[in-house]
Amino acid sequence: MGLADARAYVPDLITRPADLDADRRFLVMLARWATRYTPHAGLDGEDGLVLDITGAAHLFDGEAAMLENMKARLLRSRLSARIGIADTRGAAWALAHFAPGIAPEGKTSATLGPLSVSALRIDEKTATALKRLGLNTIADMSALPRATLARRFDMGLIEKLEQALGTRGEAVSPLSEPPHYGVRMTFPEPIGLVDDVMAALARLLDTLCLRLKNREAGARAITLSVERVDQTHQNVTLRLARPMRDGPRILRLFERPVGEIDAGFGIERIRLEAGEVENLPAEQIGEGGLIEGEALDDLVTRLGARIGLDNIVRFQPVASHIPERGFTEIPAAYGRVEAEWRMDHPRPLRLFAPEPVTSDAARRPPSRFSWRRMRLETASSSGPERIAPEWWRPDEAWRSGLRDYWRVDTRQGLRLWMFHTPQVPGWFVHGLFS
Known about the structure:
- The protein is α+β, with helices and mostly antiparallel strands.
- 30% of the residues lie in helices and 26% in strands.
- 21% of the residues are buried.
């Protein structure tokens, strides 16, 4: 049913945009929960799960008890579910969508017979064509010779029918476990020197980075855990400015954190684990063996280890002709400057809130004026550059309307960016050039 038809039936219907990515993540989480019933749990389309419970039903006192257990647990989580259990995957899908329940063992054909042909996981166009021929149920289709159906429809329909009835096999692909990026090393004798820890860390990084490389992935954070002989643990987390899997570079970044580890009476075991793993396809290496921008990212990582990555920001250009809105701040480690900086007119190095000046001049820069308790004289000026406010945005700073900007050089050596407001006459300093 379309949205317009649904609202015709229910005028107060509440709708929200679908978040397919969030639905997918939730379905994966639900599939992992389903492994309490069987290790063979996988996804079925965009809104279903498929479980192979062969050899597992007796652990829950049979299929009926397992079904009730699933319903009860899902209900406690405020989830509604339609569940079908049958000898074949196709039959279980048909029951779940059209007649929730259990098909008795060996009676799959009789159970599916009264169901609509749409229960065979076929598209709506094929189902409509079958119904026009008088084949409304699966029993009607099963009564016809396969050759007759094959001449009118493709082999895909025959395959779906045979999979549902069990004459053709169909595998259940369980959800694969996420890769684990962790390595560890146990020492025959406790170690305590920084050089020894770094040497062991280098070996672990080689193994860890090889795993990341095989999956074309990179780590945003790497945690080093050390276990001392007194059974106490100490963790050091290195947060990276970009996904990385280059062992030697990561090892250099670990030098300072490792130097702060208190070895106590000795370290007998270390463990290395990569967190926040992201996709990292292969890239072309430039001069010096580094990819473009990696040297800057290493610097950000080193500074972030001292003051925190969230405290290091960079400027991102924004499409606005208003000076103070022409940029925004983004985290240096988690954002990339994608837009190009365009400067049709020179802009000051330092930009601050407009500060009034004392002057009696009209539309041209005053020859003498006072600013910040300084008496200044104009040596030269250029302009004006007229900037109009963005009327669609409420901004108290631009309530005075148009601004005519001038670049003013003073005899005292200051280069000011000044503007005049024609509607409410007045002069202001908005920035300083270098």
